[in-house]
Design a protein that fits this description.
alpha/beta; 31% helix; globular
Length: 211
């Protein structure tokens, strides 16, 4: 897992080891060294991927947020990048760089062969593993840029359960998460349970597990 070189040490996941990212995978903030140790003691295999969160898009996103603050809502795109229908709707997942080492692929594949469940943490990890997993459910090592947009008609190949934060309306993260459940079930849960009970959104908010 990469972290932004020069970013405050408190603004990292506890397992961040390599400089390079601009934004951290928010869902991973819920883990502590003690929690990871307890999971390992319970027999949970932890497999890591390297995510360069926001290296290409971080400045673009920051500029977009500043423009929105000023009342200009059209997303900025890097020069030469074509705008997609998702961008027009406000969904702006962007290309994200990943590195899946062979050790990680072997660990996930071995757990699946043994009948274990693959629990994915975070939307970027989901996009990454769905990019490198074939139709048989086998994960392949590799590195590159994922431009995968996960919509309700997506057939998941790598995920048995999903841990993620609470996402805002119209966001690509909410669209991805809702694709794991049938129909409009997730928005209904947001309206009936999450919002009335005061759960917290944004980067330091609450999390949920979908099984």
């Amino acid at each position: 897992m990469r972290f932004f070189h020069g970013c405050h040490a408190g603004y990292q996941n506890v397992y961040a080891t390599r400089p390079g990212g601009i934004m951290l995978p928010s869902a991973g903030r819920h883990f502590t060294p003690e929690l990871l140790r307890r999971l390992t003691e319970l027999g949970v295999a932890v497999a890591e991927v390297t995510l360069d969160i926001g290296v290409k898009w971080g400045v673009v996103r920051l500029a977009t947020w500043l423009r929105e603050t000023a009342g200009v809502t059209e997303p900025l795109l890097p020069e030469g990048t074509a705008r997609t229908p998702a961008d027009e709707r406000g969904n702006f997942p962007g290309a994200e760089h990943y590195d899946v080492p062979i050790e990680t692929a072997d660990t996930i594949n071995a757990q699946r062969r043994a009948g274990g469940l693959v629990v994915i943490c975070g939307t970027t990890v989901m996009r990454t593993l769905e990019t490198v997993t074939d139709d048989t459910g086998r994960v392949w090592p590799g590195h590159g840029w994922t431009r995968l947009i996960i919509a309700p008609d997506h057939r998941f190949r790598s995920c048995d359960a999903f841990m993620t934060n609470l996402h805002m309306p119209t966001s690509s993260e909410l669209q991805l998460t809702a694709s794991l459940v049938d129909g409009d079930r997730l928005p209904e849960i947001y309206r009936a349970e999450i919002i009335p009970r005061g759960y917290r959104f944004y980067e330091f908010g609450d999390s949920m597990v979908i099984v």
